[in-house]
Each structure stands twice: as C-alpha cells, then as structure tokens.
Write a structure and sequence with these properties.
about 1400 residues; 4 helices; 10-stranded mixed sheet; flat
Length: about 1400
Amino acid sequence: MKGFVLFITALFVLGGNAGSVRRDYIIKGNDSFDESDVRYYEFNFGSNWRGPEGSEVCMKYEFEIQFGEPGETFFFIPPGSTTPLEIIFQTGPRDFLDVPYIFDLERPTTDARVCDQVVKKIPGNIICVAQGNSTCSGMYRYLVTVGSDYDEAFSNIEFIGGLAPQLIVDAAVNVEGSNSFSGRLGATFQVETNGADTVRIDATDFQGEPRGNIEWRFIAQGTSNEISLPGSLVGATVTGSQEDSSLTVSGITTVHLGEYIAIATNEHGSDRASAFITRGVGPFIIEESGQASSNSFRVGADRAVAGGEEIEIRAEDRLSDPSSTITWSYSRSESGPYSAISSGGSYRIDSSVGADNVGRDSLLRIINVQPDQFGYYRAEAVNEFGTHTSTTSLIGRQPTLALGAGLVAGGSGEIGNTFDSASGTITIRAFDINGFPDSTYTWQRTSPTGTVQQITTGGRYRITNSVSGGRPVSTLTITGVTVNELGTYTVEASNVFGDVVGESLVGTGSTCSSGSDIVRVINQGQYESGSYFDTTTNVNRFTIIASDQSGVPHGTSSFSYSRTPTGSRSAVDTAYAITATPIGAPGTIEFFNLVDGAYGYYYAQLANQFGDSECSNLVGAQLVFRTGSGQIGQNYQLRAGDSLSISAQFSDGFPVGEIIWRGPNGQIITPTTPGYTIGQGLGSSILVINSARDGTDYGQYTASSSNVFGQVTRSSTVSQTMDTVAPTIDAGSSDTVNTGGTGRIGESFQASSGETVTIRANDITGVEASDFRWCRIAPDETQCQDITNNPAYTISTVQNPSGLSDSTLTFQVGADTYGTYRAEAMNSAGTDAAISQVGQPPRVIDRFNLITISAGSSRTVPVGAQIGVAESGSVTLTATDVDGQPGRQFVWTYRNDPDGPFLPLPANRITESVDGNVGSLIINSIDRSQYGEYRVIATNQFGESTPVTTVVGGPPIIRFSSGVETDGEGEIGNNFVIPSNRRLRITACIIGGYPPADPDDFQFAEDIVVLQSVQQPPPNDHCFIFEEGEFEIVCSTTITARTENLFGFSNQPSSQVTFPPPFIMGGTSTCDEGNAMTSAQIGSELCLYNRNSFDITCTVERTNIPAFSFGWTFNGIPITDGGLYEITRQSEGTSVLRVSDITVDETGRYTCMVVSTCGETESESTDVSLYSYEYICNEDVGRIQCFEIVNGGVRTTVANAVCDRLGLARPPCAVCDWIVGPWSGCSDTTCHRGRRSRDVLCECNGLTQEDEQCDRTPKPPVMERCGLIGVRCNRPFEWKSYQFSRCSATCGNSFRSRRVECVSSITDNVVSDAECNPVFRPENNVQCIVSPCNNCIDRLPQEDCDIFISLAGDCRPYPYYVSSICCATCQRRLA
C-alpha cells in the first residue's frame, strides 16, 4: 500500500460537501457483534454492536490517503432522528499511562447531552462509549475529507436495558479464628489436610441487573469433572444464592483439594469465577550472621581465608512444600550485579531433598579458593508458592600491608621504612597487597613524649587515597618537617575481617648534653655530662647523666675510658663504675669506690640511626701528698756530711701535676742546683740532700703542685742531730687474759660494756725520745684507724726518769670500742709496734615459745623454741650472739632420744650458715627422721656461750589400717563385724611424733568411756592392745585410739564394731507361663496369664539378732494384709505373700523388707508380668499377625501358631491401594495452557475409601499440562500468580503471601514486570484476620526457631510462618 497511515484526533462534523467524490480512505470494519456478557469491545468503524447497558464499546478510526491535508469529523445520530449531531471534544491533560483522555461533550441540542461524560477518546485513535445506556444508542458516523473528496463510515451501537452479572474477583484471603480461612473468588487457599481446617469462599454479583443467581461447582484436584455443590462433597455447605452466596468447606482432607467455581446468571448473561484449595508452603532459607568460626557455615555468615582452602556454604530450606529449587549466584560487589554459579571448575553444588518432598538443602563448595573468587555469595530458593533470597556471605581476607625496611635515601618510601627529617618533605605510602574487601586506612602520630595525634589532611599533612594495580593505596605527605612532626607514624588498614598496623619512624640525629666547667661533686649527686668533676670532699658515689638533647628517637648511650686526654680508649672498669645504655632514655654512668683507679677521662657516645654525638668528662680530685716516714711533711735530723732523701708522693688527686721543690732560702731547687739531686716521676718526686753542709742545708724544705681543681703545698724541717737508738716496746703475751681492766700492750683484755680499760706501752731502748701513735682495728675489718684525735680515747705519752717514753691508752668499753689496738713507737732510728685485743665471750639469746609450722610451709624461728612441724615443712633456726667480741663460731649438735647424748648433725637436708653475729641452721622438707633436739654453742677466744636447745617435733601418729575384719582380731582403723560368740582384740601402735608420748597418756575409748588397754613389752612397747571376751554389742559401737605430747593430740583412728543385720535369701529367675498358681522365692521373675495367682516367699538366714519383723511393698508402696493380698508368717524366719486373680493393675515390682533394732534389709525384687495374645490385622504389611501383649501395652509379633494353639479367632483384614483412571481430553489444544486430568481413587478390598487409607504410598498425580507449546493463547504478556502460602499463624497477627510474575503467554518464561499492566497486578501479600491466640506450640526444634526469629528480626508475621511455626517461642519472648 502506497502513501502513509495517519492516526489523528477526529471530530464529529456535518456531512460531506456537495459535488464531492467518494473515495476509499477509511479502513472499515464490517462485523456485527451481538453480545450478552459485559466486557470491553474494540473494532474498526463500520462494524455494528448490540449488547447490554454498562458495556464499554470502542471504535477505532484510521484512514489511508496519498496526498492533500485531511479533515476529520464525528457525528452522532440518535434513534428515530435524521439530524446528525456534531460531537466536539475538548482535550484534557495528557496521560500516557494507559489512562483515557477526559473530554467535555458540547452539543448544539439538549438531545445530545444524554451521553455526557461517557464518550471519551483514548490513545491509539479510539473513540469509546463507556458504561453506555439506552440514551447512547444510535448511529455513529466518521467523516474524512481531503480537498473536495471524502470518505465516511457508520457504526450502529445499541445498548439493551439491564446488565449481565459480574462477580467480584479478589486475591485477598483473611483468616477467621484458628484453622479458619475466608476470602473471595480468585483466592488460593493453602491448607493442611488433617481435617482441622475450614474455608469459606464468598461470591458477590456487583453489576448484574437484575442480580444474578449464583450456583457452585467443584472440580477435584487431578480430575476434569465438575460436580454441583453442596451435592455429595462431605463438609460442603452453601448459604445464599441471589447476589451474595457463600460456600463453606469444613474438615478439609485431600478429597477437598481442587477448584471451586461460582456461576452468576441472569437474562442478560452470566459470569464465572474460581477459587482454589490446595496444599503447599513457600521456601525459607535458614541463615547465619557475623563471622563464621570454621570453613563450613550457613549462608549469611562471612569467612576470612588465606587462599587455597576449601569453603562450604550451606543453604538450608526447611519449609518449602513441595521442595524448592536452590540456585547460587556471585558478585564482586555486595550491590551486584550477581552472576549464576553452576558446578564446574572450582565450584561444586550438591543438593538434597527433605523427607516427604519438604524442604531442600544445597551445599556450595569452593575448592582451592583463590583471590579472584573473593566476593559475595547468595542463594535463592524457589517453588510455586514463593521465592526466598538469602542474605549474602562474604568470602575475603584480612589486610596485609607491604612493609619497607631500613632508612630510605631521600624522603619517599613505604610504611615500615625509617625517614630522616633532614629530607624536608617526607612521603609514606601504605599499600594493602591482598585484603578483601578493600581496606580503609587510618593514620596517627605518636610524639617522642607519647602523645597520640590522629592525622587528617591539613597544615603540613596531606592524605591521598588512590588505586594501584586494583588495590587501594593511602599516601601520607609531610611537607617541611619540623620538630613538631617528629615521631612514630602508624597506619591501620582494616576491613570486616580484621586490621593490620604498619609503623614508620620520622626522626633526627642525637645531640649530647653539655654540663658546667668544674663541678664540686657531693655524695650521691647526679650531674649532666660534659664537665670536670671534683670528687675531693667525702664522695664515694655519684652519677653522670648523658642526655640526648634533640635526637628522635633518643640515641643509645655508651661510655669509654682513657687515663689521659689523648690516650687510647677502653671499656669502663666495672670495679669503679656501673654503665647503662638504655634506648630512648638518658644514658648513665654511676661511680663508686672512688680511688685513684677510677680517675680519668670518660667519653659519652650517643647515637641513633640518624647520627651520633660525643661529650667528654674528667673525673678527678684535688692533689694530696702522702704522709709517713720519709715523706714530705715529716721533720728530719741530719748529721753534717750525711745525705737525706725526702719523698713527695701524691696519695690522692687527679690529674697529677709537676712537683716543685723550694729550699731553706725559699729558692726553687732544680736538678742543676748544686748539692741537690731531684728524681721526677708521674705523681712523685724525690729530693736528695747530698753531704749536708753546716748552716746551709738545714732549714725548711717545701714541695708544691697543682691541677685544675686546686694547689697543694707541704713542708719538712731538716735539723742537725747526734746518734740515736731505735725504740723497743715492752709487750706482754696474748695468752694472758686480763680481766682487771689494766695491763700491758700485747695482753688480751676481757671486759664488759661500760668497764674501763687501760693499756700501757713503754719504750725500753729508744735513745732519742719516741713518738707514740695509737690505732684501732674494728671487728671484721682490716685497716687500723688512727685514734689519736678521737675524743673517746685518752692517750698520755711521757718520758720516764731514764729518758725513755711511756704511753698509756685509756677508754670505756662499748660496742664502738671493742677490737684490736696497736701501739707504734717511732724515733729517727726506727720503729716498734705491739697489739692487744679487747673483747668478751659470746652470749646466745634463748627465746622459749611454742610454734607450729604447717605442711609445705617455711618459717624462721629463734633458738630455744619448741617447734611443731608437719611433715614436708621447713624451719630456719637462728642463734643470735649479743655479746661476743671479737667474732665467734657456732657449733650445732643433735639428738633424737631425750635420754641420749648430743651428736654431730645428720647430713640430709640440713644447712649451716653464719651472717655476722647470727648463726643459722636450715632444716628443709622435714620428716620424722629429723625430729629431735638441736643444741647450739657460740665460742671465741674469750670463752663460749651457754648451750641453747630447740625441740623440733610433732604430735604422735598412731598407725591404722582400713578394711573389714570378721574374725574379731586386727589393727585399729579396721571395721569389725562380730558374731556374738567371737572375741574382740584391737592393736594400736605409735609410729611417729617427738618428743615420745607418755605411755600413761594412751587411751582406747568407746564414745567418752575410757577402755582398759595393755602396753606391750619391749621392743614393742610403742604398741597397746584392747581385748574383750564375749563382746556383747546391741547393734554397733565405735572404739577410738588416741595419745598426746607437748605438740598436741595424735590422730584418732577408730574402728566400727557392728552386729550383722538380717540376711534375706534370694531366689532364682523363673518364668512359668499359664500355671494357675506359681510359687517362688523372692527375687524370682514371674510371667503369668490373666487371672492367675502367685505366692512369693521371703526367708531370713538366722543370726543371733534381736527380734525382727517382715514388710512387703508393691512398686514402692507398702502392702497390708487383706483384699487381693494375703500375708502369712509360716515360721519365725519366713513370710509368704499371696496375690490372687491378678490383672494388669497388679503387675509390677514386689519387694520384701526385714526390720530389726539393728536396721533394716531390703530384698531383691520379684517382677511380675501379665501376658496375653491376639490376632491383629497389620495394615503396614497387609496381613493378619499374632501379637504378644505384655501388661496390656507393649506388642510384639510371634508365630501365628501361638495364637492358633490358644484357639484365637482371626479378624477380617483389608488391603488398600490406589486405582488410576484414564486421562481426560486436553482442555485447550490451541496453545500451551491446556490441562488434562484423571481419577485416582483409594480402594480397599474393592470398596472406595478415604485417601488416608492408602497413604503408605504416594498418590499418583491427578492433573498435568497439555496443548501446543509455543502457540499464543491471548495476550503476549500476562500476570501469573502462584498459590498463596498458609497464614503465618493460626491465631493473633498473621500474614500470607504468594509469588506474582510477569510471563510470556507463549513460552511461560518470566519477563520484566514493565511488560505487564501494573493496574492489573494481583496482590502478593495479604493480612489474615484470626481470633486471638490461646494455646500454641513450636513445630520446629528450639534451635531452628531461634534462627528463624533472629533472621525475621522478631516474632513478626513475615517472613513465612515465624509466629505460627514457632508460636510457643514467640509467646515466651513477648511475655
């Protein structure tokens, strides 16, 4: 066809022009429609239509032209009129969502207004008459003009009075009460077929004029036959038939499943709609959340892996009925898109179906997980009743940072490198090399003082985030680094699986501190490095601190030593100084024992990875000349012509200086000065006066020197003299102990504190008066301290008439004056010396007390105590000498027999030690072999102390046994069972404890009554015996043995002595079937027939016991004589129980009790069982079987011969099975949407029964699809709704849902929802209306209910049955 087709807005206009030529422009219809149903009709202008009022009739206008501008008009010609009325449309707002345009109709006459608001124009060039009535009947004309030519088309529309019925079709379903459902036509009811559910379906004709009459039909599931209702369908009732009608189906079983049809009919037509009752449940996948603890977990949980592992993700659908289909998908991003996963490569998918085709489990295994498989995995379960998509499981890996190492050259590197601030600008890069999902980064700085600062972009900092090689990178740039940016920089890379921290140091080199020029050191002082340290004034310890003033991090410190400023360096001598070199803190060197060897030059070195620094220290003292014979400072007598050497040596001070000599005239003496010789050495010089000259070389000589700490000068006077004789001191013997307080030097002096001692020292040979010098050597010391100027001593030196010198030392004795005294006589010819000791004998403190030490404990105790020590305890004995001077020795001895001698100490676990005036004896892990008495004596040259004895011991221990003795003889601790004619003999022996217990303190006792016992002769005198003949005990008693020593009572073992209780003789197991009377000993088993009687005998084996009685119980309840029970005592030791005509009520456990004054005895039980037999039809196997019935309950199959032997009759037994009929014809063979069905019945012995009778095998299908695949049925796309789920609860708040999809009418494949009209989309979630809850239970295990409720967020009705299936759990949580 040439030209083009135009779709335009048309207007009714009056007829064509005179003289115009009629052309075929309009595409016309030529059909006639005579319809009775109310529906939508669409056809081309030219067709005619006749139908009921309320219909919507649409006429399509389209034409074809080849040239010219067309004009279009519409006309309406009412019935009986010849005047066409022009219809003018006024266009309203455009709406392209398939909603018609709205027009106001304006006509020149009032007759045309009868169709106001019902004629409309809609997209697609269509004119519609909506909800038409008789006033809209008439001729509709469409005129097209092109120039002088025209074409026209006519459609005759006739609306007939009245309307055909139309039923309300609604997908909403409500629940009224427990297991009660109601809803309109169109709904699908998901029910259980246990006979407890009721469904009410409401049918309403909302349009029929008059309202239609409603009848009901039913097509059973799997069949195609319609039957009228209520008819023969059990439980079906119909109420109402005009306009509104309800069908109620009660006691629903499988026979009620199928399609329920309502048909509304009046004279204008009919309408038909259906509702369905079916059985089924949508799927629901159980999920986990959080981090999975193993490589096998439920979907929804996340798992961190390293790579190479095997992962198992489980999707468990426990609800779907029928079983769902579960598919898996994967995405690198949580927001998608997701791609389907199938088995193959690294993926394995395994599925299994639950029992009765309910639920499905699917297992996704990822073998050898690789980084490209990291991502998000989810599962989707689908069946015809719904779809459930799980939350995602994330598979990933914890971040790992790429770390640098060492100091970088320049200012750019990785986290982990070290950066020198001298670079100016520093760039640190953090790179997560394998974490998934991508990491986020956080930077912070820790200053050298420990302050933590979070780093963000700003100031000198700039943080940039980028991607390199697909991995996230964070870069920190520090511009113009100052001291404020020094420190440790950390970056934390984190994702959901964890975090990792990297660290870099930004620092600068070390700088050593600088102290003062000269420091006068005081004792215990601390000083900065870099100074001259003067230690002259009583200094024995001080510390130099070498601080790093600017290094970041603080450098490590070390010290070296040199005796001279330019000498080689060595390690610090640890005899004089302790060095420490901590990292990050000042280094210290601590000096002690400050003698000449400690003086010198000490260098502190500070270093870190960025640089080092050094500062030097001089440790010295002011110079001091040595004193003594031959030294400068002494006065000398010299004969003319003799020579004299005077030595000037430094006894202290550093560094040493040059020694300068001056003679009597004050002039400096040099090596070239006549008459003198000078010898120089380091720290010493000797001046020799050669051949002294009268009047010239006699006088004062001076030696002087200096160092940085000061100057020193000392003089000697040289005078002219005659010949002299060296002194000799008149000394006594040290063996002479002087106790009177006065004596000669050389003797020993014993004196107590407070007494006065006078020691005489006389020179008996010296020519030239002697000088005396006294000194004291304190105890435990070696140096003799000069006491010449000590105010505690009085020294007197005089010349006797012979011209000889006598010296006397007098002092009061005290703790500070004991010791050794030395007297030295000196003149120019020589010296002599002698010594005396002043002291007193030792005295050890004796502290008596009583002490106990528990097992495993240790304690220190002064000697003289009495110590009770549990075995494995330890004790340290301390002996303190408070008087002994000088010194003492401690002598320890031991004995373990109070009457024996003291002997040397045993060697095992005993250690001696002495600390000053305290001697210790350590006894470890004491056992009984070390119990005894320990004695100590302290001795010195003046005598010995009084002995002090310490007792170490413990309470006595009585040996005991355990067991049962029946012959009347044994050791204490055994229990004795004594026949009345046997004797009792109990032995108790003491095996431990010190001091030994007194035999008179040993006792056997019965309660509080002391029993008579006998001590055995040696060597068994530590054992005692209690003996009793014809021991008479009513029932039982307890006998206890005990003794004691100073540390307390012994253990108290006891023996229980008892008279044996009665003994009941037991029977053997018997089972006699069918006997009219059965007798047995108690303990036998009895198997009886109904109405049998039996006797049980209870017999006591006699012993000489007091009187006793019998008692009987049945199932633990006492039995009394009378009724069914008869109890007789046939002899003194026998009781018989008879039970007559028993039934099931008398089956159970019978027990005999014997009660006496010594207790009671219960026998073994006799179990009585009642047996019967019966033929029963076993439907599971389809045949009769003989059953044995025990006590009316438990049934067991036995050979049929047993029942036959008993003459039992066989009952009838039916065998049931499914009977399948032929398939019906296909309901629609023109397309793919047809159905065919067949009858499937349950027959038992030829009779039709309820389906439940055949439920041991699955019922064959009753319906299936048929037709032509690929053939279009109606529209190309349509909404497809699935069956509604069951209400989520049978009471309370409840919802039900279904799946709704847009599908192709040709292939039935799911397409986008946009292809279907959203106006007609069926509901997929509706609320149920039910009664309040009263009783409810959980239909799943507690564990699954907890998971369901956790996934749903609470006991809400959605998703899927939470509040119904887990009703009891929900009620507990909401209570």
